[in-house]
Amino acid sequence: MHLICPQCKTDGITGGWSFITGQYRCANCGYVGSFVIEMDDENYHKFQEDQDDQKVEGKGD
Ligand SMILES: [Zn+2]
Q1: pTM of the model
Q2: Does any domain span residue 46?
Q3: Domain total for the chain?
């Protein structure tokens, strides 16, 4: 299971869910909130491929 940050769309969520605040924290962008995107391994790999496709644009060769 992967926890994806809804703000920066990476798996930067540390998994450090706080019992005090009930929120997750993203180590990548600093997002703090109770909502994160949960993905299993299969969906996560597809998600990463989609992200890579978007990055390829403008690569120029
Ligand atoms: Zn983030």
Answers
A1: 0.69
A2: no
A3: 1
